[in-house]
Structure formats: structure tokens, C-alpha cells
Amino acid sequence: MFYLLNCFIQMKILLNKIDLNEALFGMSNLGFVPTMGSLHQGHISLIKNSKKQCKKTIVSIFVNPTQFNNKKDYTKYPKNRKKDLSILKKLKVDFVFLPNINDIYNFKRKIKIPKKDKILCAKYRKGHFEGVIDVMDRFTKMIQPKKIFMGEKDFQQLYLVRNYLKKKSTSKIISCKTIRDNHGLALSSRNLHLKDNELKTARSISKKLNNFKRILNKKKNIEKLINLKKKEINNLKNVKVEYLEMRNKFNLKKDTNITNSRIFIAYYIRKIRLIDNF
Is 43 designated active site? Predict the structure, then answer.
């Protein structure tokens, strides 16, 4: 049987794999939005896209331990289950899957990503994408959705998951545009950890890079300009740039041709790590 919270009459709360199998038996045209909770407008946009394109929508909330290369980062990841469920109820989501670790990791295996893909975040976060791919593959096999909705803010994640699942599953990955605040900063659960002045810094970096991308069309020596921009951002107070690179959006190879390319950045403000692409 489903375990329903009394205050959520229409939205089915699925607490384990048995609930999931019973709820989704014979289900077709199902949209899936994987999340780690602390829902914001970015997640809401994914859910709305799913509701438009699919007959039913399921949202998972699962803070996946295997994708954290830093245990402190895992334990400090923002959580607000009550608020998340309230948001999902208002959105009239059909199913919410709240599995425990044993439901997901009931057997062991090792995921490997190709050496050529150990770039950008994969270069600096050992084991991160292996954990992401693993959990996404497990969720996809359990839920068997028609479509999976993922945001472009985590572009490398989107790229790697899509390439892996297209060989393993008939589920289609739907990429959705990055949702930003009124100042151009990509929405992220990690933004909750930023103080007001740090939030202002993050917004200024987004503005700098957005303007920078626009002028690159008219410039030469693009690689040199990117290095100069990296130094400029690195000189901001409490900021440390991990990488700033331009890569082709179809294969993530380094590129100096602005056409079909994106600028990727990862940086720290104090100890908070943020990523974006433009």
C-alpha cells in the first residue's frame, strides 16, 4: 500500500520500493524529476516542464551520498522536507519518492567514466560523476520513466548522464534551461549558504561572465582573454576560481570557436563551491 501523509490527499508519498512498484505498475508517459530536495524555482521549472509533457510526474528527493567527495559537504547539504512537500503539493505532483539508502543501494557495483571525460568538475571532484551516473541509472531502472527532466546548470552532469543512459535505457533526457534570479545568478541550493555580501559577489561574477561571453564573438586570442578573466575573478574578495574554460557543448572538448561553445566555471566563495555555464 502507499503510505500517504494525511495532509497530502492527492499527492502520493512513496516511502520505499514496494510503494513505488505498486504506484507505477502499468504506468506509461511518466515524467521523472530527480532532486536532492531544498527545492527552488529551478526545480519547479523542471516539474512544470514534466507536467506539460507527460501524463504523470514523479519527483524524487534523495541526497545521494556517493556523489559527495567531501563528507562534510554531504552532512551540511541543506534539507527541508516539510517545505519541499508543501511546494510539491501546490504543484500537484502525482508522486513523490522518498527512498532510503538501502532502497537505492541494495547491491554494489563500480561505475567508470572515460578518461576523456575527466575534465571540468570531474577533474576536481573525484568520484562525483560516478556517483551521479550510478544513482541515475538505478532510479531509471526502478521508475522506468518516459522522460527525465534535468537542468543545464549542471551541464557536464547532463552530458554524462545522457551519454550513459542512452546506451542502457529507452528513457529520454530532456534538458531544461538554467533558471536564474533577477540578478542573473543561477539558482542553486548551495546559494542558501551564502551571506548577503557573498551573494552579491556571486551575482557580479555571473554578470561579468554573461557580458564576457557576448563580446567574445568580436575578439581574437580568446584563450588569452579567458585567462585574463579568470585572474580578474580570482582577485575578488574570498573568491578562488577552480576552472574557467570554453568547451564545445556537444562533446565538451576545449574550443576557441565561440559557435556551439559554452564558458564553464567552478569557483569557491569562502568554502561554498558554485558552478555555472554561459
Answer: yes
Chosen CATH of 189-277 out of 1.10.275.10, 3.30.70.141, 3.30.1300.10, 3.40.50.1000: 3.30.1300.10
Per-residue pLDDT tens over the stretch 170-208: 999 999 999 999 999 999 999 999 999 999 999 999 999
Residues 24-72 pLDDT 10s: 999 999 999 999 999 999 999 999 999 999 999 999 999 999 999 888 8
| Catalytic-labelled residue, pool 43, 128, 183, 193 | 43
Cα separation of 207 and 201, whole Å? 10
**CA–CA distance, 127 with 66 (Å, rounded to integer):** 8
**What is this structure's pTM?**
0.92
CATH number for the domain running over 12-176: 3.40.50.620
111 in Cβ contact with 132 (< 8 Å): no
Name the residue ranges covered by the structural domains of the chain.
Answer: 12-176, 189-277
Which strands sit side by side in the sheet containing 239-248, from one edge to the other?
239-248, 261-269, 272-277
